[in-house]
Amino acid sequence: MTEVITSKQVDVSEDTKNTPKKAVALISGGLDSMLAAKVLLEQGVHVEGINFFTGFCVEGHTHAIRKKDQTKQKRNNALWVAEQLGIKLHIIDVIEEYKDVLLNPKYGYGANMNPCLDCKIFMVKKAKEWAKENGFDFIITGEVVGQRPMSQRKDTMPVVQKQSGIDDLLLRPLCAKNLPETKPEREGWVDREKLLGFHGRNRTPQFDLAEKYGFKDYATPAGGCCFLTDKQYSDKLVDLWKGRDNNRDYDFDDIMLLKIGRHLRIKPEYKLIISREEGENNFLNGYKRQFVSVSVSSHGGPLTLIDGVFPKEDETLVAKVIGRFSQGKNADEVTVAFRYKDGVEKEITVKPFSVDEINPNWYV
């Protein structure tokens, strides 16, 4: 099979001109990428999906953990999209490679810690490499001109093509009529007239198209589930780095724990991760051997992990804080148990802090 990866490779035999072309679709788990893939499937193009796992899309995990989220779908939305479309999905772990995108974005951050433009360039470049290795002809995304303020402006969309090296083998089916023709359109691999001209932030056209195709129960927000766009999550990530002397490394456990519990930075060198319910208690229990852990033995209450360098002279302070979040918060005394990573355990009895004694500046 002749591979067609860049616009410079134009020597295609007569036999291959008439065979269905193969497109790889970037599948985020949101509605737009789902619709983009469906539009091409309707034209007879062979489509397979690719999902790059950065670690920052862990929505399904948190819904499974918290009792209050029991009614929400506990699924990998990218896999669900592939199932609805009836296509293969290739999930590729890029956690380590993605660190440089997050920590050193050439085009900066969005409103929070989201390096949207650099992220899109990275993913298209990775998809291009995968397409070349696996005999695919072009790449499609669910982008819409004007929908996102950083990565989906008409002036930034060409940046993605240039910096990723994909050139005009990147097709955006939902807004193609608002953009210059790409090679798949010029060569007749797809029919431009059957592509769409969506634009702006109004999502009614997407919802109408989803209804036409019979898609229901798709993920919201429709753009996927990147926690880096969330202010609270981003603030916790920045705080994590500050608490580690501005060492901006992280691992997957860090990513998960930032979404769990209350985070209280008691002192610069350590913070408390306090569970808010039974589901989080059970989840944090799996990390007890990696952290100093604290529980309330005299009353029902949260499991707490201490992240950072914890001085034992702060045991009384921390016990009073944790007592405030237990069922004994109004009692004269609560007994709090500390378990250190070396296996040493210690109980102390304290009077819980009143609500006024909890410093609001501790909350991350």
Written account of the structure:
This protein is of the alpha/beta class and 364 residues long. The chain has 2 domains: 14-228, Rossmann fold, CATH 3.40.50.620; 260-362, no CATH class. The protein contains 13 helices and 11 strands. It has helices spanning 14-17, 31-41, 59-65, 77-85, 95-103, 116-134, 157-164, 183-186, 204-213, 231-242, 252-257, 278-285, 315-324; strands at residues 22-26, 46-53, 89-93, 138-140, 170-171, 262-267, 270-274, 292-296, 304-308, 334-339, 345-350. The strands form 2 sheets. Strands 6-7-9-8-10-11 form a 6-stranded antiparallel β-sheet, covered by helices on one side. A 5-stranded parallel β-sheet has the order 3-2-1-4-5, with helices on both faces. Helix 7 (157-164) links the parallel strand 4 (138-140) and strand 5. The protein is elongated and about 80 Å long.
The major beta sheet can be summarized as: 6 strands, antiparallel
The sequence of SSEs as H and E is HEHEHHEHHEHEHHHHEEHEEHEE
Helical content class: 25-40%
What's the oligomerization state?
A: single chain
> Helix/strand/pairing class, anyone?
alpha/beta
Mean pLDDT: 89
Distance between the termini: 55 Å
Q: Count the helices. How many? A: 13
Strand content: 15-25%
Secondary structure: number of strands: 11
CATH C-level label of the largest domain: Alpha Beta
CATH superfamily caption of the largest domain: HUPs
